[in-house]
Design goal:
Length: 572
């Protein structure tokens, strides 16, 4: 086989099924070779990591095939929608690194959709039903049993036309009437059994105000919006697979109406892929909204939330989210994605990105008894061993230091390679010291640890090569700054909260998902850094600076630990 052919095969293999479908369409010359996608969020909440999967596909595909991707707000339900959500959605998409061509709103098409509905009524393909939602549901039948026709199904066209006008003028109460497409009450696809296409909602719309009282249902808005915009590939999640025949039916009907029809060589195509579901998390906007509204988390961008803004605040980089989404891929099978895969992608990315600094989260004093009082040395600390261009900074060293309480043990087991009387350890970027003892209070709590240093072992010195097993981080008491550090754990205590349907999901929350430490210290170097900066606290984990942090009141968030030790902890 020639090298070129082999390359082609490798290239083909790495295409996902959607890319293959797109390439096929291009090969067949569909839509005159044009590719256009859209990301269609409903502005009823903040975006979550599941949306990131759809965003990467919608925008990524357009980029790959030289097409365009628009942002379309699916704002057909005024009750749940808000401008706050519109703004946050735009910010999150851009943070992920994407830029839409244009912004559209389904509400921009309310007039065209209305005109289309009127045309369907005139063709006797839609009618106003005066039954309640419950009655209509009861008549739907089952997949194996035909439904029952509504007593209003065959009412005169003029009657439906007049009532449809009234549905929109405010004369009709919510729930008193709906407009239904007249298709087939015996169709094996339940979505064809005279679906509701318009309902009355008397609530001002965030864009159109009081102009409309009759609002189109999702199925009557989505495909048509795609068509009006010229979307070629309408990518959505698997639960819409059963809606696809209706999507196609309505587009067909639309092409039959001269005032609304477009170039006959154009046709949008819906393709479905599997949702992203994350362990120890929930993806439903309704549930996420409940957590926010009931104060069970601190807002949509709480770092424990699976929202894009939560991950951003927690210190995840957009690149790490891309890596994770690439890894899980796009298929036709629903799956539960392991959150440790996401965390591994975050660690992997932050390893190359994060500035290393020292922080002591649970401090105890360490006194170097043979180090001159008042002496201060500047020790060089490399900013990132994975990135030469990141440079280095200096950290002050003196006689009195802070060290982590659990780095000392008075009576340590053999393999404790940290601070214990009689044992040598290296203080990172500084000297080798030998522990000489400690002081305790009346309750036996260690209040000070003592050691002696060897001046000939300074890091970087030619004869500093003496081997010791442990290296500890530290901070000079007189030169560091206090800080608050927030440690986050999984939001839920069970792997798949959505599967526990007999329980209220709120009962499944992990009560220990947030631990606030207020007695911590960090290097002064952190004071000049901006909120959201990516950091690694040496030996502890990846952290970032919280958005509410100020130089006077530093706040850090733990992004992720250095290693995946959650399994171990949870089995304790
Ligand atoms: P909800 O039903 O919880 O209100 P939704 O999932 O319908 O939310 P939308 O705002 O309508 O949210 O979604 C916008 C786009 O994102 C849709 O194309 C949808 O298919 C996709 N999407 C939503 N959730 C996920 C997910 N978990 N994985 C992949 N794509 C998703
Ligand atoms: Mg939706």
């Amino acid at each position: 086989m020639t090298e070129k052919k082999e390359e082609e095969i490798i290239e083909k293999k790495s295409l996902n099924f959607i890319e293959s479908a797109v390439e096929n369409d291009l090969k067949e010359g569909k839509n005159h070779g044009k590719i256009q996608t859209r990301f269609p969020p409903e502005p009823n909440g903040y975006l979550h990591i599941g949306h990131a999967k759809a965003i990467c596909l919608d925008f990524g595909l357009a980029q790959k095939y030289g097409g365009i991707c628009n942002l379309r707000f699916d704002d057909t339900n005024p009750v749940k929608e808000d401008v706050e959500y519109v703004d946050s959605i735009m910010e999150d998409i851009q943070w992920l690194g994407f830029q839409w061509e244009k912004v559209y709103y389904a509400s921009d098409y309310f007039q065209q959709l209305w005109d289309f509905a009127v045309e369907l009524i005139k063709k006797d393909k839609a009618y106003v039903d005066e039954q309640s939602a419950e009655e209509i549901a009861k008549q739907k039948g089952t997949p194996t049993q035909a439904g029952v026709e509504s007593p209003y199904r065959n009412r005169p066209v003029e009657e439906s036309l007049a009532l449809f006008q009234k549905m929109n003028s405010g004369e009709i109460e919510e729930g008193a009437m709906v407009l239904r497409a007249k298709i087939d009450m015996a169709n094996p696809n339940m979505h064809f059994r005279d679906p509701i296409i318009y309902r009355v909602i008397k609530h001002p719309h965030h864009r159109t105000g009081d102009t409309w009282k009759a609002y189109p249902m999702y199925d009557f808005a989505h495909g048509q919006s795609d068509y009006f915009e010229g979307v070629t590939h309408s990518l959505c999640t698997l639960e819409f697979e059963v809606h696809r025949p209706l999507y196609d039916y309505l587009v067909d009907e639309l092409t039959q109406i001269p005032s609304l029809a477009k170039d006959p060589g154009y046709r949008p195509r819906q393709i479905e892929f599997n949702r992203l579901n994350l362990t120890y998390s929930v993806m439903s906007k309704r549930k996420l909204l409940t957590l926010v509204k009931e104060g069970l988390v601190n807002g949509w961008d709480d770092p424990r939330m699976p929202t894009i803004s939560g991950f951003r605040r927690r210190g995840y980089s957009p690149e790490s989210i891309h890596k994770f989404i690439d890894k899980i891929g796009y298929t036709k099978y629903e799956a539960l994605n392991d959150i440790s895969l996401l965390e591994a992608a975050v660690r992997d990315d932050l390893n190359k990105r994060a500035t290393r600094i020292s922080a002591v989260l649970d401090p105890v004093k360490l006194i170097i008894t043979n180090y001159p009082e008042g002496k201060v040395e500047e020790m060089e600390a490399i900013n990132n061993p994975e990135d030469e261009t990141a440079g280095s900074h200096f950290i002050e060293f003196s006689r009195e230091l802070w060290m982590e309480r659990d780095d000392f043990m008075e009576n340590a087991p053999k393999k404790f390679f940290r601070m214990t009387p009689g044992q040598e350890v290296r203080l990172k970027n500084a000297y080798i010291v030998k522990c000489t003892g400690c002081k305790k209070d009346e309750n036996g709590v260690v209040t000070e640890v003592y050691c002696e240093y060897d001046p000939n072992t300074k890091s970087g010195m030619s004869d500093s090569g003496r081997k010791v097993k442990g290296t500890l981080h530290w901070l000079s008491c007189a030169h560091c700054v206090p800080a608050e550090v927030r440690l986050y754990d999984r939001l839920f205590k069970v792997e798949n909260p959505a599967a526990e349907q007999d329980k209220d999901f709120r009962e499944l929350l992990n009560p220990d998902s947030l631990k606030v430490l207020t007695n911590c210290y960090v290097e002064k170097y952190a004071v000049g850094m901006k909120p959201f900066s990516y950091l690694q606290f040496q030996r502890i984990g990846y952290f970032n600076i919280d958005r509410d942090s100020t130089p006077e009141n530093l706040i850090f968030n733990r992004t992720v630990g250095l290693k995946d030790n959650w399994g171990k902890i949870s089995n304790k």
